Amino acid sequence: MLARSPTFRRVIAGRGTAPHNGGDQNIGFEMGTLMAHLGTLHSFVLDCPDPRALAEFYRGLVGGTIQADGDDWVDLRIDGIGAKLSFQQSPGYAAPVWPSDDGDQQAHLDIAVPDLAGAHDDVLALGARHIESHDTFRVYLDPVGHPFCTVV
Description:
- By secondary structure, the protein is an alpha+beta fold.
- The chain has two helices and eleven strands.
- The longest helix is centred in the middle third of the chain and has 12 residues, at about 50-60.
């Protein structure tokens, strides 16, 4: 467990800062007040039936270089960022249910695009399924059912 320093402070929405003592559900952390961190983001991993195929789909969306580590793991190294998208073979993979009636929010990626309408046909051509549109984002499912958004 990460030890908290005396300068570890929380921001309570609309009420300034207070020393961290847990309990409040509406918490954000001030930038720069956490003196140490446990690590850095290495990768965001998606389970799927075919890692190479899903990596190719996401390379079409965000660019990058595919690096395979056997048949069951593929990394997509994206230019300009240290973290990567990774794809892990899961023989019993079942797509998340989205949207679902229970209110669960699945993890998803937001992909910045210059124009929602302009990107739409290209996203579909890569194999995505369009789910819904809003003024500043559109929701899609990738070829194996993971939700993601294009955003402006």
